Amino acid sequence: MYICALVGASGTGKSYRAIRVAKEHNIEYIIDDGLLIRGNGVVAGKSAKREKTRVGAVKTAVFSDESHTFAVSEALKENKVERLLILGTSDGMVEKIAKRLGLHGIDETVYIQDISSEYEIQQALNIRKTEGKHVIPVPTLELKKNFSGYMLDPLNILRRKGLGDYEMLGEKSVIRPTFSYIGRYTISDYTIYQLVEHVTRKCDGVANITRFRAEKSEDGIRVEMDLVLYYGYKIAAVFKEIRNAIAKEIETVTSLNVSGVSLTVKSLSLKSDYKNKNEDFITT
Q1: Bridge partner residues of 227 (DSSP)
Q2: Phi and psi at residue 240, in whole multiples of 5°?
Q3: In three state form, how does the secondary structure of 101-152 look?
């Protein structure tokens, strides 16, 4: 296996430049912050950016956990990877990652100062320091199930081929990790409830919310809710509308991933003088 390393201090723009370096070296697979990435997808691993502390993030990035190491190592074998790009903050770090994954030493090293100007590096450092932004070289939708922090923006990476002509290299995600350089970012359960209540009460057929619970997990937030519905509505259709509304509202407003919405009808209620638009509505 040919192994190339991209080395630069934290926050200098390695992940931003990774896809371009891989393209120029004819490399399909990238290891960045604990993830094995191919093209626009995560093949194996877990993101260091999902850890709650910087120390935990570093341990994940260098594959300190045996099960994490084994999963990525097996994925490299199963996919018969011939060329690999490893990102790290130092020569020692990329060499340690290669050793942990059972690979030989680094064949070639590219340093961030060789491919970025001083201005670009300083700009990246300032954004990291003042806004806490990180880049991960996979699309937001692909990243969500491997990440527990906060999605900020998708980012398309283009390369100029000629005058007015650009080649699409890939999509990246701008995120803020669970640990932050500019302070903690916390959303209370009550805030989640207010968002859920706001959109749920707008859905046709909902009379009342009798119980609410938000459960945080590694892959996002799971919402559980007991409801009273108005008599005459198709329950399955009402549930589908509520689930879609909740997922859209939470993910749009908070950027948190919704891993599931569990709904239970506890009772039905009659609504006087109600006129349903559906033809199959039964009035009593």
Answers
A1: 209, 265
A2: -60, -45
A3: CCCCCCCEEEEHHHHCCHHHHHHHHHHHHHHCCEEECCCHHHHHHHCCCEEE
Enter the DSSP assignment of 48: G
**Domains assigned to the chain:** 2-176 (3.40.50), 189-269 (3.30.70.1350)
Instruction: Report d(CA 256, CA 247) in Å as an integer.
Output: 9
Please answer whether residues 136 and 172 qualify as being in contact, where contact means their C-beta atoms are separated by less than 8 angstroms.
yes
Mean pLDDT of 191-209: 92
pTM, rounded to two decimals: 0.60
Helices of type H across the chain? 14-24, 54-61, 66-78, 91-100, 112-115, 118-131, 140-143, 189-200, 235-254
Higher pLDDT, 101 or 20: 101
Cβ-contact 1, 79 below 8 angstroms: no
Considering only CA atoms, which of 242, 174, 165, 233 is closest in space to residue 203?
A: 242
Under DSSP, is residue 19 helix (H, G, I), strand (E, B) or coil? helix
